[in-house]
Write a structure and sequence with these properties.
The complex is a heterodimer of chains A (107) and B (121). With 107 residues, chain A is mostly beta strands. Chain A contains no helices and eleven strands. The chains are: A mainly beta (107), B mainly beta (121).
Chain lengths: 107, 121
C-alpha cells in the first residue's frame, strides 16, 4: 500500500505566520490527494481535494499544491482556529491511506 | 443538513466481535452517489481507512482487515454497519463513519463525531 509521510511532525508558529506542511507519497498518486483538518475530540474536516481544490466553505488562506509524490498544504496567515492536526490522504490506489499528521501548534 | 452518528458498545472483550452502526440523518442513504465508509484512529496515531459500502451493497475492504470485516447497509433504517471479528487490543481506537461523495471526487466530505471502542477483558 502507498505510504504517506508528513513533515514536520509538529510545526510551532504564531498567529499571522505562514504555515507550510508537506506530504510525500511512496509512489505516484497523480493528483489524487486530499488534506483534512482535525481538532481535538472532533472528526476530520475536508479542506482540499485533488491536490489543489478547496472544499466548499474553506477559506482562501488554505491552498494545496503538488502532484506525483510531493504535496504541500499552505496556510497563508494562521488564524487562531487553524491550530490543529492536518492529515493528507491518497485515493489513487487501494487501499486509501492517510499520513500520520502534522500538528500545527501555537508558538 | 446531513449528519452521521456512530453507535455501539464502547468496550469489547478480546476475541469477540466489534459491532458498530452509523445512522444517516437529513437525507436518504440511497439518494445521491455516495460510498459509506469506516475509518479508525488509535489514540495519538493517524487515521486508517477500514473500508466502505455502497447503498446497493458493493463493498471495498482494506486487504489486511478483509478477513475480519463485514459491512452491511439497512436502507429502511438509513443505517450502515461494521462488524470486526476476533478483536485484539490493537483494534482499540476511535471509529468514525464517513461519506465519500461524488461532488468532491470521492474524498471524505462528511464525518460522524466518532466513537471510542476499547478492547479489554
Amino acid at each position: 500500500e502507498i505510504v504517506l509521510t508528513q513533515s514536520p511532525a509538529t510545526l510551532s508558529l504564531s498567529p499571522g505566520e505562514r504555515a507550510t506542511l508537506s506530504c510525500r507519497a511512496s509512489q505516484s498518486v497523480r493528483s489524487d490527494l486530499g488534506w483534512y483538518q482535525q481538532k481535538p475530540g472532533q472528526a476530520p474536516r475536508l479542506l482540499i481535494h485533488d491536490a489543489s481544490n478547496r472544499a466548499t466553505g474553506i477559506p482562501a488562506r488554505f491552498s494545496g499544491s503538488g502532484s506525483g509524490t510531493d504535496f504541500t498544504l499552505t496556510i497563508s496567515s494562521l488564524e487562531p482556529e487553524d491550530f490543529a492536526v492536518y492529515h493528507c490522504q491518497q485515493r489513487s490506489n487501494w487501499p486509501w491511506t492517510f499520513g500520520q499528521g502534522t500538528k500545527v501548534e501555537i508558538k | 443538513q446531513v449528519q452521521l452518528q456512530e453507535s455501539g458498545p464502547g468496550l469489547v472483550k478480546p476475541s469477540q466481535t466489534l459491532s458498530l452502526t452509523c445512522t444517516v440523518s437529513g437525507a436518504s442513504i440511497s439518494s445521491g452517489d455516495f460510498y459509506w465508509s469506516w475509518v479508525r484512529q488509535p489514540a495519538g496515531k493517524g487515521l486508517e481507512w477500514i473500508g466502505r459500502i455502497y447503498a446497493g451493497g458493493a463493498t471495498n475492504h482494506k486487504p489486511s482487515l478483509k478477513s475480519r470485516v463485514t459491512f452491511s447497509v439497512d436502507t429502511s433504517k438509513n443505517q450502515f454497519s461494521l462488524k470486526l471479528t476476533s478483536v485484539t487490543a490493537a483494534d482499540t481506537a476511535v471509529y468514525f463513519c464517513a461519506r465519500e461523495g461524488d461532488e468532491v471526487n470521492w474524498y471524505f466530505d462528511l464525518w460522524g463525531r466518532g466513537t471510542l471502542v476499547t478492547v479489554s477483558s
